[in-house]
Amino acid sequence: MTASRTARERVRAELTREITDIARRQLATEGAGGLSLRAVAREMGMVSSAIYRYFPSRDDLLTALIIDAYNALGEAVERADAVCPQDDFPRRWMSACHAVRDWAVAHPHEYALLYGSPVPGYQAPQDTIEARMRDVAVMGRLLSDAWRAGAIRPPADELSPELESEAAGIRDLMPGVPDDVLWRGVSAWTALYGWVNFEVFGQFNNTIEDRRTVFEHMMRLAAATIGIAR
Amino acid sequence: MTASRTARERVRAELTREITDIARRQLATEGAGGLSLRAVAREMGMVSSAIYRYFPSRDDLLTALIIDAYNALGEAVERADAVCPQDDFPRRWMSACHAVRDWAVAHPHEYALLYGSPVPGYQAPQDTIEARMRDVAVMGRLLSDAWRAGAIRPPADELSPELESEAAGIRDLMPGVPDDVLWRGVSAWTALYGWVNFEVFGQFNNTIEDRRTVFEHMMRLAAATIGIAR
DNA sequence: GGTCGTCAAGAGCAGTGCTCTCGTTTTTTG
DNA sequence: CAAAAAACGAGAGCACTGCTCTTGACGACC
């Protein structure tokens, strides 16, 4: 098909990519609020209205950036998990945690788009949920694998019955794992992103300097909460 | 001296308060990005430029709202801690955690101002740090009290030496507490705000319904991490 | 070759933060 | 008490934003 038809489509794809690239660079320097269609157009030597041929609104451009960011983060976590020996669960956990933190610190504004305060008026469309699940899916698989391998401290005390029904939406992320362990995983997960939020959003400025070292200790505590044998 | 001079100053204080009130209401409905000086002026029946007599810039208005929010949150946590028996540390911990979560859920946009992605270009001035420390100070006092009362599981294993120097900026928040316990406290603290971030920013939508119940379980796990005897 | 769809450009609308000026009113000073 | 000074609200205006609509040109298809 058709060099001729593709002639147009190719330049269109190229321009679309150029727009997102410039937008991403602008996002990195100005933040989500400072992302301006007009500025992107200016940098491309276009007039502002022309951008709307490629992205019908500012939100659509934002959505594209969000999906890209989710995929970038997810890929980083997947890779960090993949390079570890599959049965070394503490190491897999630490590796995944560091991947999240490293990516977030390297791309603070993009991270803010994913896990920061939602942009007012912006509603994430369905397209994002697939890419959005990649990082948490890694964590779920990790817990599932560890449980199956008998590497997780077994449940101790009874759970309150109200918790059972609440686990429904999470169970398929870590199949086979008992609820008690599941909630321990959620706890570690919130601790991970809680830290990263604090760090990326500047809450540790002038307080904690060597954040990587402290982070590592935090995630070791989280691993203990999960019950991953060391 | 006061009557005559205060005539003007009183109406000025009144108007200032009215501006922040309207701004806060606008913040609650539109979010930080939707806070518009012109809209505030319109609602007051003033012309937009008149607002600048009271707040030299939009950021200054934002700062006022941030300080108010920090104080509101801090006060809520302080009160929640104060109503508990002083030697019932697990209960004090849970009470403080619920206070943070309740306030955040009730005032999501104001919470986002405090703990969400920073507003681009906005730099929090020094005025905020005092109000900002109120909530975390409660937590620090709680840990300090619990340690002094012997209600915290003592340190087990040795800490890595790099961690020692990093604790400097936090020690005065919980005087007398050994570093191991201090870091456990930080871990629980990040778990708390990590959860609240996720909940307020909508990460649990369509996933966890009865968030209060799960939150309570999470904070119990965090208490176990701290080592508060149950 | 003619038709149709795609495209960039430009003007324009409503909104924003912010600045400056201009009378008016209130407070302070002489 | 009157004059000088400070504070104030109103208005116009600047540069910017997202977005819409129209116009004219170019390339692709029948």
Describe the structure.
The structure is a homodimer of 230-residue chains. By secondary structure, chain A is an all-alpha fold. The first copy, chain A, is 69% helix and 0% strand. In chain A, helix 4 runs antiparallel to helix 5. The first copy, chain A, is elongated and about 65 Å long. The model of chain A has no long low-confidence stretch (mean pLDDT 92). At the A-B interface, helix 9, helix 11 and helix 12 of A face helix 9, helix 11 and helix 12 of B. Chain A binds a DNA duplex (30 and 30 nucleotides) through helix 1, helix 2 and helix 3.
Helices and strands in order:
2 copies of one chain form a homodimer.
Chain A lengths: L2 H28 L6 H8 L3 H4 L6 H25 L6 H18 L1 H8 L11 H6 L1 H15 L13 H5 L1 H4 L7 H22 L10 H16 L4
Helix pairs in contact in A: 1-2, 4-5, 4-6, 4-8, 5-6, 5-8, 5-11, 5-12, 8-11, 11-12
The first copy, chain A, binds a DNA duplex (30 and 30 nucleotides) through helix 1, helix 2 and helix 3.
Q: Helicity of chain A, in percent? A: 55-70%
* Strands of chain A, total number: 0
Q: Look at the structure and give the mean pLDDT of chain A.
A: 92
Structural class of chain A: mainly alpha
| CA-CA gap between termini of chain A | 57 Å
Largest interface: A-B, 49 and 49 residues
| pLDDT < 50 stretches of chain A | none
Oligomer: homodimer
Helical segment count of chain A: 12
What would the keywords be for this entry?
homodimer; 230 residues; mainly alpha; 69% helix; DNA-binding
Give the structure's gist in a few sentences.
2 copies of one chain form a homodimer. Chain A has helices spanning 3-30, 37-44, 48-51, 58-82, 89-106, 108-115, 127-132, 134-148, 162-166, 168-171, 179-200, 211-226.
